[in-house]
Amino acid sequence: MARPRGAGRLAPPAWLTAGMRPAPAPVPWAAVLRASVALSAPLAVGLAADRPAYGALVSMGALSGVIGDTADAYRMRVFNIAVPQLFGAVGVTLGTLVFGHGWAAVAVLTCVALVSGMISSIGAVASVSGLLLLLNAVVGAGLPMPDPWWTAPLLLGLGGLVVLALTLLGWPLRRAAPERAAVAATYRAVADLYEAAGTSAYDERRQAVTAALNHAYDLVLARRARQHGRAPALVRLLARLNVVVPLVEAAPAAHLRSRIAGPQPAGVPAAVRDLADAVAGDRAGAPVLDLPAPELPSEKAVDHALRHAVSVVHETDPEGHHADDRLGRPAALRVRIRRTTRAVLLSGASWRYGLRLALCIGLAQALVSLIAVPRSYWVALTVTFVMKPDFGSVFSRAVLRAFGTALGIVLAALVLAEVPRGWWDVPVMMVLAALIPAFSAKGYAFQTAAITPVILLLSDTLNHQGFGLVLPRLYDSLIGCGIALVAGYLLWPESWHARIGDRLADAVSDTADYVARAFARQEGSDPHARLRARRALYRDLSTVRSEFQRALTEPPPTGTRAAAWWPLVVAVERIVDATTAARIRIDHGAPAPDPAEAAEVERELRELAEGLRADDTLVEVRTELPGDENGVLEPLRREVRAARAIAGPDLR
Question: Cα separation of 538 and 210, whole Å?
Fold first, then answer.
């Protein structure tokens, strides 16, 4: 059927509707069961003890634990659930003390928002802690809590402990399973990468490898940092992760070779998948590796890296591994506290976000506390979720939260109108709670749709408003989204004048440093320095990619500018790959280039970085970059020329 003329003009723009399509993610059944039990059991106990309000508060604490349980490794899950509960207890205590006190509530919540926003920049656990600090303060200031004052924080904390206890049931049987699974997944991603060498799917597979490698190192080094001494199993796992890095480094050379001479031998991806199975099963032994004799430098690099990985993965003596865990060694506690305090207090980004969040929360609380509108904590609650900095674009989150709240309100209306209060709340909560982890994997709008009826049902247990909660909460959500859009986005200069090119310029400058390091002739230098530099650079590029993908969901001009700059992000990633491929080929027999050629490539990249910082407008630059057309640097020069054809300094 032909598409009607004008249909494209009437359709909403992609940046507005991107988050409304469910992501293709599997259902986390363990999390579904855990959420169902953690939120419904306290309600049942509260009803049995004739204290339904107490049960609702415990379920609210469990809800916070379910939302914060996002890590894989058990040790990280303990921190992700337990530490934020302490901040949540402080938040609800402050909120309870200023409940119904007008300007005092406005002032306290504004200060709490400032602190919450500033500490959110420290890291993942601090981000969840800051969120829970503000959320519970808002709830405490908006809902009547049971006396004495310590009852609410105690019950909310108990809810978090329920989730933590359910989470740790599998710890004795699966103590190191998440870390081992992450390392095995990295090997499988590398196998997919080699399978895609020479094809258009290579770039996408390389990004998957970077994500898998970052995730595995985060888990393993986090555990290594908290485990004193040399635990044999952990040393073995870290060594197995380290030896995948040479395989990743050899992949760009294999990709270049496949584009010229055809696909890789099928035995290479198969051998890497065998290594993944050995890591997943924690097996060792004597493997059989049947590969053709390598001839080209790129083939020698792959063969050497693969054989080294096989020898380490199947090594039976963990003490024989040289596990480089320097990145995971924590500094002394006082040093970490001093560094964290300095980072929070002296960071411009920390202050900017804290002030922006404080402004929006202050406006929201002033509106519901002092102006003749229905009193509701839901307005400030909406602002808190929308303004979370590491959750995505403020604009898109405001739109998606309004959409998700509307869906959740429909479901809540059915429950509040048709289901009698009392024991029927327990089976209803079992179903609604199970939807939270299932829908959270699909996207923010769907997570909001799942959380909304749960909070409304728990709120009704505390204030007994019934169906009368439904429409006011929808209005409150729309008001909160409006405050976030106006005060936190439209009127905030950073939203309209964000130099998204600055992050990319830093990445280009770091790439120039990497080129200089890769081709420097320095005797006695650290042989692992370049490996660590490359890994850090790929991690930075992954962050840049995420920032640009987030900017793509913004309305014009930010979104359109990010779309225009997107090809340059891809070009820089390819430059890094080409640099790695050239270095690997040199290490395995290819003639080294003239130092002047490498210096010229470095100069072009630094000029590109300066141009990106100088102007928001992309200007095409033609550059010759002469050199040996048959030399090892020719593929790198092609990628640099392609990048300069996209952008450069405007010298006109």
Answer: 7
Cβ pair 116, 87 in contact under 8 A: no
Hey, how many other C-beta atoms are within 10 angstroms of the C-beta on 18? 15
Above 60 in pLDDT, residue 230? no
The residues, ordered by sequence, that sit 6+ positions from 526 with a Cβ below 8 Å of its Cβ are: none
Amino acid at 300: K
* Of 531, 624, 620, 517, residue with least CA distance to 567: 620
Who's near 495: CB < 8 A, 6+ residues apart?
A: 394, 395, 489, 554, 558
Task: Name the least confident of 277-281, 525-529, 584-588.
Answer: 525-529
Distance CA 267, CA 500 (A): 43
Contacting residues for 146 by C-beta, under 8 A, at least 6 apart: 53, 54, 57, 152
362 Cβ contact list (under 8 Å, min separation 6): 106, 109, 110, 113
Average pLDDT, the chain: 79
- Cβ atoms of 279 and 187 closer than 8 Å: yes
pLDDT digits (tens, 9 = 90+) for 554-585: 777 677 777 777 888 888 888 988 998 888 88
| Torsion angles phi and psi, residue 589, rounded to 5 | 115, -15
How confident is the model at residue 317, as a pLDDT?
A: 60
Q: Look up residue 558 and give its two tokens.
A: 């930010």
Contact criterion met (CB below 8 Å) for 284 and 315: yes
Instruction: Yes or no: say if 448 and 440 are a contact pair by the CB < 8 Å rule.
Output: no
Task: Say if CB 625 and CB 641 are below 8 A apart.
Answer: yes
Helix 558-587 × helix 297-313 angle, to 10°: 90
Residue that has been written with the tokens 């630094």 in this structure? 606
Over residues 206-220, mean pLDDT? 84
Quick one: pLDDT at residue 346? 66
Q: Could you give the CA distance from residue 589 to residue 587 in angstroms, rounded to a whole number?
A: 6
DSSP 8-state code for residue 329: P
Is the predicted pLDDT of residue 476 greater than 80, yes or no? Answer: yes
Q: In the chain, what are the helix, strand and coil shares in percent, each to the nearest 5?
A: 75, 0, 25
For residues 569 and 618, the answer to whether their CB atoms sit within 8 Å is: no
